[in-house]
């Protein structure tokens, strides 16, 4: 049965509880799993779950499922009446002393996630070319690079890994900036690409996609291949890409279509079992990108399962442009 949309007074009843308001404030800052949310609130999961049910019924939060984990995010932006109610109460929630403690715990959770992600790729960096780079045709990456051309000045390879894309950009872009959260991945790329032909400008910058070590409007183009499925939250990363691009600059993405290979979470550090291209397009639109395009080239990622057989996971490419004006 489809529930009727909640009325403003039903929503107000749900918003009359301070814990539920704290939940919304936490989710406004970024997506959290149910376990992380309970930790950020300093409450047990059973205590939190009843609040979540009411918020879900009031269509104030959104759920996304990855294997057995439920990820939560705020759902007020697409509903004008919910957005108005939330804006009316949010300043009051921010002033609560509990909200400050929530924020500190949330920052710790995010730091821990980053450290875990960095440790994973640091540990596999030396073997990554053997375990994580088998593509059926390689066409998806070629298309993603071609989408950045002919603007050939400064291009960033975001989440460069062991530099497969970087290598193709050398000689095409005037300057290539490699960004990755893993110091070891950057080191492997640097070693692999040395010695550089003269006149090639290549920089290595360690950093996070949602806090890019790139100045405002420094980039003519950016490529982000096989990275978004490692992120909890697409929005802050895409906003950062937008900030780092010049007006008219292009962001080119390669991603895995949704799949069912749950083992990849542990073996490849994936946080998402692929990404629905509609979600990527939607997130790009919300971040302000225009001229969006989606392609499904004849290509697939072919990681080896534990039994030795290869999975065949279709890839797609998405492109968006920062408006010129
Ligand atoms: C699957 S590899 C892809 C590497 C490369 N782009 C390619 O296509 O071969 C993902 C890379 O993204 C990096 N990464 C994951 N999450 C990141 C984040 N939030 N910020 C920066 N780098 C990240 C990892 O350290 C890893 O090197």
Based on DSSP secondary structure assignment, what is the total number of beta strands?
Answer: 11
Instruction: Compute the number of helices.
Output: 13
What is the CATH-assigned architecture of the largest domain?
3-Layer(aba) Sandwich
Total number of distinct structural domains: 2
Small-molecule binders here are: S-adenosylmethionine
Mean pLDDT: 92
- CATH H-level homologous superfamily name of the largest domain: Vaccinia Virus protein VP39
Overall 3D form: globular
The proportion of strand residues reads 15-25%
**Percent range for helical residues?**
40-55%
Ends apart, CA distance between termini: 46 Å
Query: How would you sum up the major sheet?
Result: 8 strands, mixed
Secondary-structure content class:
alpha/beta
